[in-house]
Write a structure and sequence with these properties.
Number of strands: 13
Bound molecules: zinc ion
CATH topology: HIT family, subunit A
Strand order of the largest sheet: 3-4-5-7-6-11-12-10-9-8
CATH superfamily: ATP adenylyltransferase
Largest sheet: 10 strands, antiparallel
CATH architecture: 2-Layer Sandwich
Distance between the termini: 46 Å
Length: 327
């Protein structure tokens, strides 16, 4: 089912054979994974068009365990970590990526090719000291988009450092960034090798970085991280979702500053409940609804309201932007 026009214009057609083959190989030996990837062919989708951009909604019942995951410290301590090698299914294969990260097939996919990229160590989900590794892997995996969900921003294993990856061309944010940046983005900084943009009127707040030099994009994100961190001193790390991809020699990184983990609709009762727990994919423009009833009833206004609850508010976004001109 499709409502409205909301087509992405393709993305980069350079998906590495090595990664595609890894998925194919895994699905030959793991029925659960193979069944869930086959199920994606029948996934239902709706699209809502806003002013110059769109948000899709995907009905994906297999994502219930992620959307409804209990991530409080007691619940985390009481379960076995599903990203640690000793607890992973024997059938789950791994691919070494270097930098102490490995690639696993995500058996509960949103993307047609969906990987989890955990650290080989059971260490907490933190961005700052792992950003360089993330950018390095992003370049290795041109044709894929990597994303990071902060420990209070949608990570269902906040105790085990990990990224995820899916094929480019699926999330609306990629093409919308290109069409919106000149007209609707504010260019906060421009140097020879770095551009930083801010988007105020995209339902959510977004800061985007473009650079062909790893050190430049790394330094710029680090600076924004520290400045945002000072605005949320009570947090172990500022509330962030991050999406990045590497295209023809350039890193593009979208950073979504937040103020809340889950919206009021998540905790509401009965008719008012919408079981939506926004993370990077939702911020990239695809809302995931694990329950059919939510998929059927969600409206444009709900999406607008959910984004406004969980995204950084106007005033604090203005303050954060104000610190960026002098990076
Ligand atoms: Zn672990």
């Amino acid at each position: 089912m499709k409502i409205g026009k909301c087509e992405n214009d393709g993305g980069i057609d350079v998906m590495s054979e090595r990664f595609k083959n890894f998925l194919t190989g895994q699905n030959h030996t793991w029925k659960l994974s193979a069944d869930n990837y086959r199920g994606l062919n029948h996934v239902e989708e709706r699209s809502f068009n806003y002013d110059g951009f769109c948000v899709k909604v995907q009905y994906n019942p297999e994502r219930m365990r992620s959307s409804a995951a209990k991530v409080d410290s007691q619940s985390i301590a009481a379960r076995k970590c599903f990203l640690c090698e000793e607890n992973r299914p024997v059938v789950q294969m791994k691919l070494e990526l270097g930098n102490d990260f490995i690639l696993l097939v995500n058996p509960f996919p949103i993307f047609k090719t969906h990987f989890t990229i955990p650290s080989v160590h059971h260490v907490p989900q933190r961005l700052l000291h792992n950003l360089k590794a993330m950018l390095t892997i992003t370049k290795q995996m041109e044709g894929f988009l990597l994303f990071y969900n902060g420990p209070e921003c949608g990570a269902s294993a906040p105790d085990h450092l990990h990224f995820q990856a899916g094929e480019t061309g699926f999330l609306p944010v990629e093409s919308e960034f290109e069409t919106m940046k000149e007209e609707h983005g504010s260019l906060l900084l421009q140097s020879d090798r770095l551009k930083i943009w801010a988007f105020d009127h995209y339902l959510r707040k977004m800061i985007s970085f473009e650079s062909s030099v790893l050190e430049q994009v790394l330094e710029a994100i680090t600076q924004v991280y520290f400045r945002f961190s000072r605005m949320q001193p009570q947090k172990e790390e500022p509330m962030i979702n991050l999406l990045c991809y590497f295209n023809k020699g350039t890193w593009v990184v979208h950073l979504f500053p937040r103020k809340l983990h889950r919206p009021s609709q998540f905790f509401a009762d009965g008719e008012k409940q919408l079981l939506i727990s926004p993370a990077s994919v939702d911020f990239g423009g695809v809302f995931i609804t694990p329950r059919r009833e939510d998929f059927d009833k969600i409206r444009m206004e709900d999406i607008r309201d959910i984004f406004s609850q969980v995204s950084l508010d106007e005033e604090n976004f203005r303050i954060l932007k104000g610190t960026i001109g002098n990076i």
